[in-house]
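Lab notebook page, bench 4
Experiment: in silico fold of construct C2
Operator: M.H.
Input chain length: 154 residues
Purpose: comparison with the prior construct
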Amino acid sequence: MDTSIDELKLPLAELGALIDERVSTGQAVSLTVAGDSMNPMLISGRDSVTLTAVKKLKKGQVVFYKSGDAYLLHRIIRIKGDAVSCMGDNGAVLEPPVTRGDVIAVVTEFIRNSKRYSVKNLKYRLYAFMWRKFIKKRPRMLKIAAHKTNGKGK
């Protein structure tokens, strides 16, 4: 019986090469988010993303890329020449830059509670812009988001 890539449950290190292969042939790939680095935007085990081939890199995009031996899903903060600097939404420090060639795919939509959200949506674009611009304020913003997520802010 064939198993589609969407049904595979592999460590991201193994899944990364399969995702690279699929998006390089023009196919979209869905990936359930694992890990807390993209909180509060994307929640581990709850949300999934749709990855497609890179056409043009822009600040604010969430990208799937290889850094050393690791595959990561983080937001682009800065692009300078061939260097792309990323950070998870739950981070406060830029990661070492990677090259444009290390970026495998971009997130075009995310799915939360069975509802699809396009990254072209104005509300999402505003969130991405603000989150990128207020890096120094992130610790306080994350504290507020956690407070609301835990039901205390309702």
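Observations: The radius of gyration is 15 Å. The mean pLDDT is 85.
Next step: discuss at group meeting.
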